[in-house]
Amino acid sequence: PNMSCDVKNYVSSCPTCQSIQKDKPKEQLCATDVPNRPWEIVGCDLFHWKNKDYLIIADAYSGFYDFQVLNTTTSAAVILKLKNWFSIHGIPDTLKSDGGPQFGCTQFKEFSLSWNINHQVSSPHFPRSNGFIERYVQEAKLLLEKCAKEGSDIHLALLNQRNTPRENIGSPSQRLMGRRTKTLIPCLPSVLMPHVISPERVTQALRNWQVGQKKYADVGKTPHQLFTNGEKILWRKAPREWVPARIVQQNEGSNSYVIETPDGVKYRRNSWFLRPRVDRQEPSMSDGTAGTDSSAPSPTKGDSMKSSRKSMQSQPSPPKLQEPKQPPLPKAKSPIRASPEKFSGYQTRSGRLVKEPIRFDC
């Protein structure tokens, strides 16, 4: 019984098979917090385009984004650009980034503490966890590519894009600053007057869009796998390379975990990089063999043969059964030999008899 289950568990606990498994299937999206006011939650990231480095920042409430060229990619240069934006639009409550070298150093941590900013870091090597800002990176690169091919001004392109309304919640400029900004397109002066869009309507629209996107994006995806502190796992170090580790801590509000390898090094990875580890268990001794005295010498082959011979001699022989008597069979009559027929043919010189066909007997 349970042989199929035992075979399945034995195969699934093979260390070699576990270390070269395929990647896990894509997991379902994790819904992020929806802001209630402009410039409450912003994201920033670095991107590279045509031998130049850029720093981009985007507002999750209004969809307003901006990017500038970086002469150097040091943390000091990034902090200087952020201070310039924060002096114009204000200090955000939450700043999201991918935790790169510019955002993970001590200098940036001190800047976040001194400016009272909650810095949230996405999972390393997992851009999908910071998809909000990654989407605006794609839009910025596409806008730069269009302007480069047409030879148009990138600043005018940004101005027009920020004034493009989105359904019934206005344009990014209207949601962020409460007014439309003047462009080269002729318009009435009344259109440029301040008009604040209801924050409740914007928040509800953003929440509905998020629910719709998650509904279609989760088709065919697997739910997130939860782990507990101290649990033994396998960590995807590289494609087809899973190494053993254990869970140390789970980050609140995200699907990232702090793991520790056997050599004591700690990493922070998304749950997509982790899977449970199955350790092989040695089969336990059965109850029948557990009670035997292992110190007693085992009988030799000769002793066992002698004991079996004695037991056979000591056993009484079974009584012989009398076979039932059968009536004698009648004697078979000897067959009557028929007289040999006269041979009609001839004999060759070699002695072979040749019998003529019947058709010639006429």
From TrEMBL:
Residues 276-362 are annotated as: Disordered. InterPro entries: Integrase_cat-core (IPR001584), Retrovirus_Pol_polyprotein (IPR050951), RNaseH-like_sf (IPR012337), RNaseH_sf (IPR036397). Residues 283-298 have a biased composition (Polar residues). Residues 34-231 form the Integrase catalytic domain. It comes from the Eukaryota. Residues 353-362 have a biased composition (Basic and acidic residues). This is Uncharacterized protein K02A2.6. It comes from Lygus hesperus (Western plant bug).
